[in-house]
Design brief:
The chain has 78 residues and is mainly alpha-helical. It is 69% helix and 0% strand. The protein has six helices and no strands.
Length: 78
């Protein structure tokens, strides 16, 4: 999930600190999930997906087909 969370966070124009503040998770939780050091709990994943307005599948496995071109370009830049 690490790169997908980072993708949606960056697409929303948020820093890790801003995302943590808006979702009430700690900055270390956000950073650890993005870096793959920690998997989020089911509740955390559902909360994050809801916050970004995406499905849990999209958060875990990447954007749907309509976003895939933008996603690939963003990943190449990161």
């Amino acid at each position: 999930m690490k790169s997908h969370l980072k993708y949606y966070r960056k697409r929303a124009g948020l820093s890790q600190e801003q995302l943590a503040s808006k979702t009430k998770f700690s900055v270390s939780t956000v950073a650890s999930m993005e870096n793959g050091r920690r998997d989020g709990s089911v509740d955390t994943i559902i909360s994050m997906a809801s916050f970004f307005g995406v499905t849990v599948d999209e958060l875990l496995f990447g954007p749907n087909d309509s976003d895939s071109t933008t996603y690939k370009k963003t990943e190449e830049v990161s």
